[in-house]
Amino acid sequence: MPFSTTGGDRVWSAAGDPHSAIVAVVEVRDLRKEFGEVVAVDGVDLRSEEGEFLVLLGPSGCGKTTLLRMIAGLEQPTEGEIRIGGEDVSRLPPRARRIAMVFQSYALYPHMTVANNIAFPLKAQGMDPEARNEKVEWAAGLFGIEGLLQRRPRQLSGGERQRVALARALVREPTVFLLDEPLSNLDAKLRAAARDDLMEFQRRIGITTIYVTHDQVEAMGMGDRIAVMDHGRIRQLGTPEEVYHHPADVFVAQFLGSPPMNLLETPGFLFGFRPEQFLPEGVAADEGTRVPFTFHVNRIEYLGSERFLYGFIREYDETRVIAMLPATVTLPISIDQDHKFSVAKDQLRFFDYDDGAKIAPQPLMR
């Protein structure tokens, strides 16, 4: 007996056979949430694409989890509208929205087996035992946890618990997945593997997924698009390449990137460049299209795959900057000396001095 789940422009059956289906698009309009005098979400407009992996990225307290919880129906908006699949669900309870949410804690029942944890929402819906068991086996097979069905959560690794939580969410046949930092409890090595698993699963079934994280590596590596949030507002929405290489303002420029974008001040505006774009003369190609700087290096960190050079730019009031050189650049760099570095003109980004918004390229006064 095949079971299916809606997602992308398909329905995937237990046998993997695709059938046409209606895709759920999530849209919020002028959404606002107040907790007393605190504005957690401030007039957000956002629309997902069909079957995409959309990431809400921002620092702690920026409103990303509150936004996700309003989409899920766990928080009621103060103002605004939420639409899922074209239907206004702003006042509907979570169970009526056809969404599935996975939390940071996974929220598994410790006294139940893996099989019973996965089956719990189906039992609550009144599905008959035979169909329920088949569907549990299908979901377990999808996540490669068939051999764990008789174990309890305490007997599982963090990655295995994550897969159980995802399987439990999937059996409800949601049209939208909402994930609230589901990898944050895993160690770094397991988190990288879990990212791969989660992306493979999402691509396979094509369910529209909204994913909350404060980790820019997760956002850049997983998202089809990223909504960068700060103080309850979306500062920029775009592909990973767009938000990294073409930041909409100073906040996005410095929030993304490790190290963040270097920013220098000049009369009337700011300009910046990424540390990996700041290269020694003689290393960078197309010297005629580059802007030269005098870089005084006062500290070097060798990290194996790259070197971080810390110092300041003499031409701009000794503004502190960082250069990041890959291991393939073996040019010797001395500490406490000036070096000639440069940045390609088309890699410079310009921002308004007052509000930090991106502006058109400006002539540099040296």
Explain this structure to me?
- The chain is α+β, with helices and mostly antiparallel strands and 366 residues long.
- The chain has 2 domains: 4-98 and 173-245, P-loop containing nucleotide triphosphate hydrolases (Rossmann fold, 3-Layer(aba) Sandwich), CATH 3.40.50.300; 269-359, Nucleic acid-binding proteins (OB fold (Dihydrolipoamide Acetyltransferase, E2P), Beta Barrel).
- Helix content is 23%, strand content 34%.
- It is built from 8 helices and 22 strands.
- The protein has helices at residues 64-72, 114-124, 129-142, 158-170, 188-205, 216-222, 240-245, 250-255; strands at 4-7, 10-13, 18-20, 26-35, 38-47, 53-57, 79-84, 87-88, 99-102, 176-180, 208-213, 225-230, 233-238, 262-266, 269-273, 279-280, 290-302, 306-313, 319-326, 337-344, 349-352, 358-359.
- The strands form 5 sheets. A 6-stranded mixed beta sheet has the order 9-10-11-6-12-13, with helices on both faces. Strands 16-20-17-18-19 form a 5-stranded antiparallel beta sheet, with no helix packed on it.
- Strand 14 and strand 15 form a beta hairpin.
- Helix 3 crosses helix 4 (158-170).
- The chain is elongated, with a radius of gyration of 24 Å.
- The model is unreliable at 1-22 (pLDDT under 50).
